[in-house]
Amino acid sequence: MDLSTALRAERLVAIVRGQDAEASFRTVMTLAEEGIPLVEVSLVGRDTLTVLRRARAELGDAAWLGAGTVLTASDARRAAEAGANLVVTPGLGEGLAESVRQGLPTLAGVLTPSEVIAADALGVSALKLFPASLGGPDHLRALRAPFPELPFVPVGGVDVATAGAYFAAGAVAVGVGAPLIGDAADGGDLDALRRRAAEFRAACAL
């Protein structure tokens, strides 16, 4: 299954960004157990590459395991070496270009029509509308008018209450960090994470 198909099927990308590597690893595994198979681990977290390697070893080759906040070509190469088979960027740049050169599935950060055109020309897998909260669902709806066939994934400010509005505006999936992860990646309550995961899965299934 390619990334665009997986996004349409699952409709949710979990974004893990923590300062406790062990807790981040447990968070990734808990998300997988709770039926959220698309997970991004941000490189701004602590010891992210180790988290990615451990999670890949546990989840196997087929799992969607992403590296997020990929900025440079070096970031992209290190992420691939650690086992990431999905690269997520906050915008356009060398990290995105290197990921595309390596043939990695990419979720590229865009906000404007010019950025959408540039990202699509690179051959990215999907478009991360970031920060989505800047214009909300109306901005997504306006962007989709000239680009109706492109897969958009709003990220930044999406929660259980707003997810439905983004889907109604044409999102194929949403990316969610803190509203889903809470403090789990910093050593917080995994049972609370499980409850939030169930809430988001329900919201994204509507």
UniProtKB/TrEMBL annotation:
It comes from the Bacteria. It holds the Pfam family Aldolase. Keywords: Carbohydrate metabolism, Lyase. Pathway: Carbohydrate acid metabolism. InterPro entries: Aldlse_KDPG_KHG, Aldolase_TIM, KDPG/KHG_AS_2. GO terms for molecular function: lyase activity. Coiled coil: none annotated. PANTHER family: 2-DEHYDRO-3-DEOXY-6-PHOSPHOGALACTONATE ALDOLASE-RELATED, 2-KETO-3-DEOXY-6-PHOSPHOGLUCONATE ALDOLASE. Homotrimer. Belongs to the KHG/KDPG aldolase family. This is Aldolase. It comes from Streptomyces natalensis ATCC 27448.
